[in-house]
Amino acid sequence: MATATQAPATAAEMTGAEVILKALADQGVEVVFGYPGGAVLPIYDAMFKSNYVRHILVRHEQAAVHAAEGYARSTGKVGVVLVTSGPGATNAVTGLTDALMDSVPVVCLTGQVATHLIGNDAFQEADTTGITRPCTKHNYLVKDSNALARTIHEAFHVAKSGRPGPVVIDLPKDIQLAKSPYVAPEEVEHKTYRPRRTPDPQAIEQAVEMIAKAKRPLFYCGGGVVNAGPKAGELLTQFVRMTGCPVTLTLMGLGTVPASDPLFLGMVGMHGMYESNMAMHDCDLMINIGARFDDRVTGKLAAFAPNSKKIHVDIDPSSINKNVRVDLPVVGDAGEVLAALIAQWKKKKAKIDDAALAKWWDQIKKWQARDCLRYKASKTIIKPQYALERLHALTKEYEPYITTEVGQHQMWAAQFMKFERPMQWMTSGGLGTMGYGLPAAIGAQVAHPDRLCIDVAGEASILMNIQEMSTAVQYRLPVKVFILNNQWMGMVRQWQELIHGGRYSESYTEALPDFVKLADAFGGVGLRATKPSEVDDVIKEMIKVKKPVIVDCAVDQKENCFPMIPSGAAHNEMLLGPEDQASKKTSDEGLALV
Amino acid sequence: MADKIETHTLSVLVDNEPGVLARVIGLFSGRGYNIESLTVAEVDASRHLSRITLVTSGTPMVIEQIKAQLDRLVPVHAVRDLTTEGPHVAREMALIKVVGSGEKRVESLRIADIFRARAVDSTIESFVFEMTGSPEKIDAFVNLMRPLGLVDVSRTGVVAISRGAKAI
């Protein structure tokens, strides 16, 4: 292998660090989220001397990745991260895993000790490619300056094509310093990696036939439709309306069909709507587009949609037949598949039997009449559902970008914040990463400086990346942190109540900070609501303040999140409210599930 | 699940680059799949291609998953299931060391002859036999050598290729 010093004479006189920045610029990168350190100093030095990209200095590398995710998911572009070797890289691992689970395109540049030191346990050395191999879509260690520019372009291609995901490029310090040739993105083509986007026409014909013949059809769609771009959401809505079928969305897919559309039943899954889960259980044809039969959605596999045929559209063939055996697999990009389905539906003048569909909708209306999100209102104590209803009502005209942390508040946000379009909703679905929401909101705010960006948080989750308030203040990013503060790790407490005999082991947080003073200490604004009558004013004030805000909303400590499919149960065994929970005991099998 | 466990032989063509084998092995350990044997060597130096022959077992659904998961690794060019894609030839090589004297030593040589194993090293008290064949044939030979002074076995694992004119 050629070493760094033997770059061909034709190379422009650029250092590796300069090549890296130029490659980022040529990839259309506008902003990088990062944190400097010894092994990336040459890149930061080159950045100082150029203005190719804007750098947002975070306060922890995990937050750099989440911010890049928020940026990526709210724009559809690739999020870019720059961190140092060793602890910089290991801190990024949670974010990378999060991006892998939720298929978010991220390119993460990590510094590495000089090539001759690799393997010597040098200061701040870690086997970054080894550590990140299972938590990235792909990773690279650049040991040859001649491969540097090509590797960066290739990484962007891999990150954003097919099923998107995080890609790490490990960059030894000597490679950053050595002269390095530059190649433009157009000159780089990956040898083999070309995921299939266009579906098999035969599968499309078959799918249309199956849909036209269905009596109780249900669309079940997810994040794959979001990743296929805003057009895919429009096509999905169009196709659903053409067929007149009910549609349910996963946590990741919210917004791809407008929440206000009468054909939309609401979210599906563990804390999804009663009508969605019942429809999923009773349907005779399930049309899955861009969702992956996650265990949060399927519940007990043996009792999952027992009388249905299933069509599964996914760009990743490994998602098909992984958990649930399907009758018709369709490999392709959700947008392209939907366009093909619409064309074929029109061509065949296909139509679902009116009488059957009307009967199906009658049944669904009965389920909807249960009004599963109903809760007991209170005049004295703020119900978390009430707080979010008001947050939605008072912010919807601004079409806010909503992020969340993980837990009860996340599920309530998914239930009560209604999304009319995709890419406005960012939550950690697959990995369930507490601490995701604030940095993700920062990423979204960087991309959309004039829009309202709200992190719906719990008081436990927010403390996992609270330091990012400092980032928000530094860059004058007016993110709003809306804490539903019940002083408990609410979802842990809920499971302990329902499954572990009310033994609340370590789920209560004593000695919480005063969040209003904390906001103040960071240079933001703190607001507090303790009574239902204060909620509206606090939200209005939050919107008005053009600074980072923390709202400490003291909510009912005992409220549980319903409806709920208990662990190990089937869709038709939902708990609808507190009155249900005593009568149903969790199975031993369910006890072992997460 | 009542699905039967099946054994499949897969051929995987990969870029010969650092870490590619770790990716394949990590995939199997990370997702709880079985590896019964795995062999790898470069097969095309000019294109930097290596070929992995992998014997794995699982239910049909798991085997499908394994193939799909392998196929989505970025440096993987092709995945072929030799077990389902028509007839194939599978061979393994083994080096087998037998220590003994007298009648046992003569007997080991006689059996080696029947199995067409070659003695590639010999001392007054030992032989090293080299043999090639199906894994079952090697199993049979090793079992016969056991009472005759078997002390060491080294096996390559299966390499396999499809029969007929078609290439990977």
Summarize this entry quickly.
The complex is a heterodimer of chains A (594) and B (168). With 594 residues, chain A is α/β, with parallel strands linked by helices.
Describe the structure.
The complex is a heterodimer of chains A (594) and B (168). Residues 1-11 of chain A have low confidence and may be disordered. In chain A, helix 2 links the parallel strand 1 (31-34) and strand 2 (54-57). The two termini of chain A are 48 Å apart. The longest helix of chain A is centred in the N-terminal third of the chain and has 15 residues, at 61-75. In chain A, the strands form three sheets. Chain A has a six-stranded parallel β-sheet with strand order 2-1-3-4-6-5, sandwiched between helices. Helix content of chain A is 39%, strand content 15%. Chain A has 594 residues and is of the alpha/beta class. Chain A folds into three domains: 4-187, Rossmann fold, CATH 3.40.50.970; 201-368, Rossmann fold (3-Layer(aba) Sandwich), CATH 3.40.50.1220; 384-554, Thiamin diphosphate (ThDP)-binding fold, Pyr/PP domains (Rossmann fold), CATH 3.40.50.970. Chain B has two domains: 6-81, 2-Layer Sandwich (Alpha-Beta Plaits); 89-160, ACT-like. Chain A, domain 2 (Alpha-Beta Plaits). Helices cover 27% and strands 41% of the residues of chain B. Chain B has helices at 20-30, 60-71, 103-114, 135-145, and strands spanning 6-15, 37-44, 49-58, 76-81, 88-99, 118-122, 126-133, 150-155, 159-162. The model of chain B has no long low-confidence stretch (mean pLDDT 95).
Our Rg estimate of chain B from Cα atoms comes to: 19 Å
Total domain modules of chain B: 2
* Spatial shape of chain B: elongated
What's the Cα radius of gyration of chain A? Answer: 25 Å
Biggest sheet of chain B: strands, sense, closure? 5 strands, antiparallel
Give me the secondary-structure topology.
The complex is a heterodimer of chains A (594) and B (168).
Chain A: H1 16-26, E1 31-34, H2 41-49, E2 54-57, H3 61-75, E3 79-83, H4 87-101, E4 106-112, H5 128-132, E5 138-141, H6 148-160, E6 166-172, H7 173-177, H8 201-213, E7 217-221, H9 223-227, H10 230-243, E8 247-249, E9 264-267, H11 274-282, E10 285-289, H12 295-298, E11 309-314, E12 328-331, H13 334-347, H14 354-368, H15 384-395, E13 401-404, H16 408-416, E14 425-426, H17 437-447, E15 453-458, H18 459-462, H19 468-474, E16 480-485, H20 490-499, H21 515-522, E17 525-529, H22 532-544, E18 549-554, H23 578-581, H24 588-591
Parallel strand pairs in A: 1-2, 1-3, 3-4, 4-6, 5-6, 7-8, 7-10, 8-9, 10-11, 11-12, 13-14, 13-15, 15-16, 16-18, 17-18
Chain B: E1 6-15, H1 20-30, E2 37-44, E3 49-58, H2 60-71, E4 76-81, E5 88-99, H3 103-114, E6 118-122, E7 126-133, H4 135-145, E8 150-155, E9 159-162
Antiparallel strand pairs in B: 1-3, 1-4, 2-3, 5-7, 5-8, 5-9, 6-7
